[in-house]
Write a structure and sequence with these properties.
The chain has 133 residues and is mainly α. The protein has one domain. 83% of the residues lie in helices and 0% in strands. It starts with a helix and ends with a helix. It is elongated.
């Protein structure tokens, strides 16, 4: 992936670094509020990796000469991201059973929305740059 394609996702990388840093530094605050530090750190990492993968799929489809490729890329990225995160949540819930950290899952659900919004904004910037070029 070239530098121009990575430029629009700087906010995504910044959010990942901030949340990861807070997850490491804010251990006492997280424990005081009943939020699992491990769940936040690993969940944030999973969300970042899956969002970055979906972004890569979408940028690859934008370069295609086939006019249907961006639509297929968008659906493929969404499906992969949604089902991998749903599978990870299911596995976590099955392992944790009665000790599921609901506040941590709610924070990760909010982060899913933030990451998706940032990914969409970055893809719109790339699409507009391609259209204007």
């Amino acid at each position: 992936m070239n530098k121009a394609a990575l430029q629009p996702i700087r906010p995504l990388i910044l959010v990942f670094i901030i949340i990861s840093g807070f997850g490491i530094i804010g251990k006492n605050w997280l424990l005081k509020n009943g939020i699992s530090q491990d769940l936040l750190i690993y969940g944030n990492l999973l969300l970042f990796l899956v969002t970055f993968g979906a972004y890569y799929i979408n940028t690859s489809s934008l370069r295609s000469s086939n006019p249907n490729a961006p639509v297929r890329g968008m659906y493929a990225g969404f499906m992969i991201k949604f089902f991998l995160i749903a599978l990870a949540a299911f596995i976590y819930i099955m392992i944790a059973k009665k000790q599921v950290n609901k506040p941590g899952l709610m924070i990760l659900a909010g982060l899913y929305i933030v990451y998706t919004a940032l990914e969409t904004k970055a893809l719109m910037q790339l699409a507009n740059a391609k259209k204007n070029a």
